[in-house]
Amino acid sequence: MGMGSTMRAVVQRSIGAPEVLKVESWPTPSQPRGDEVLIRIRAGGVCYHDLLVRDGTYRHLVELPLVPGHEIAGDVLAVGEGATRIKVRDQVASTNRETCGQCDLCRTGQEGLCTNQRFFGHNGPGGYAEFAVTRENALSVVPRSIPPEVACVLSCAVGTELHGIRDIGQTKAGDTVLVTGSGGGLGVHGVQVAKLCGAFVVGLTTTAAKASVIRSAGADEVVVVERGERFDKKLREVVPGGFDVICDNVGQPVFDSCFRTLAIGGRYVFIGQLNDRSISFNPAWLLLRNTRLLGSNSSTRRELDEVVRMVDRGLIKPVIDRTMALEDAPMAHRRVMTAEATGRVVLTP
Asked: What are the tens digits of pLDDT across the range 282-291?
């Protein structure tokens, strides 16, 4: 690829409906330097976060125009002279950001909090394209036994749930765990992670048709609710003592009802927030029941390495809704937006 060449990429030039996503000719990334790696993208996941960037709900560190997508998998075409781990022809999957690798947070395994980070699809390379150049620290090598459309979702769709449920929520054998949005790209993997931790798992969904998939992911019970209804009584019927851990992939729309079902000493872990509205609660509920509200951001490279091993061993089976072409990005966003998708939608260049 000579300098000045172009590639096909989905480009977002403005805030708006899914139709603002258009395939264009976009500059091909330059040859990798230092610790950079050039990837031929084979698959890119579509996360609800991409929809929030597209419609303007999420604006932090977002620079237009951009190529969306932070879930990247593909083949290594070239590496910079400073790359030590990644080799040409490796299959790799990315975390959702590259970090400086030098600050105290990076050096203590908390690179998700690095203040010098570039988030892919915001102010760094995006996954809805044919090629990307990323720093080596954002990549894990993935065995060829895992296809690229699965590899691309390992960090965000699976690793984020591992980080939230096991590491932040400290889920242990015998705990009761509620997973909200349990038929979606995150939640269906949260159910598997919670089960792997040894928990009794309840999946919450607004889509009755997804109940069988949620059960096959390992849910002991599935509770189907209408959008906008109060449903804490329904949850209490299933788990009278309340939940030790609530893994909330939805946020404000379900918070009121879910929060009321937190057990004494329970941990409420926020992983997703599907709108820009606030929640409200009486602090006495936290004090009297000795509960915790916790925020959980995305997975680290170490957690991505762990997920690769878990999937390779068959302990977790990623759920791919369907693969679509780059040109179908607007349709893919609509499918995720309307909760039609069960598991992750993936774009293949």
From this structure: 999 999 999 9
